[in-house]
Design goal:
This protein has six helices and no strands. By secondary structure, it is mainly alpha-helical. The chain folds into two domains: 45 residues, no CATH class; 83 residues, no CATH class. The longest helix is centred in the last third of the chain and has 29 residues.
Length: 137
């Protein structure tokens, strides 16, 4: 026969703090092991990881305006769906603006470093999947 203390602990949140203590809140009905607070934290972490993956550029780099534009479009969608705050959207917008302003300099540096006036175009062709499949004209 279980004691009242062991029965009560079965219904408690299983979250463990860094110092070894356990959360004492009751489990939420929507989660099988966490209280409402820790279940919400877990959900936010999962959403953050999902958004981070979604904000990846087409090529995985930010050397083209297309990459920056793609990511800013994802930020716009996330803000419109209230997945990110206006402060976060503003920060992404500002960083995107800085990246877009640096693209011409990146293009010049790549072309100059390789002594090839079309080197940046070749970088775009090889880094963006759509252009890799398209025949060169």
């Amino acid at each position: 026969m279980k004691s009242k203390a062991s029965q009560a602990s079965e219904h408690r949140c299983v979250y463990q703090f860094a110092d070894g203590r356990r959360c004492r809140m009751l489990r939420t009905s929507g989660h099988n092991s966490l209280c409402a607070f820790h279940a919400r934290e877990e959900q936010q972490l999962l959403e953050t990881e999902k958004l981070a993956a979604e904000f990846a550029s087409l090529s995985g780099k930010y050397v083209t305006a297309l990459d920056v534009n793609h990511v800013l479009g994802k930020v716009f969608d996330a803000f419109a769906h209230k997945q990110i705050t206006s402060r976060t959207a503003n920060t992404f917008g500002y960083l995107g603006q800085l990246l877009l302003q640096s693209v011409p300099q990146v293009q010049r540096e790549i072309n100059r470093a390789t002594n090839n006036p079309n080197a940046h175009s070749e970088v775009v062709r090889t880094t963006i999947p759509y252009f890799r499949r398209k025949p060169q004209t």
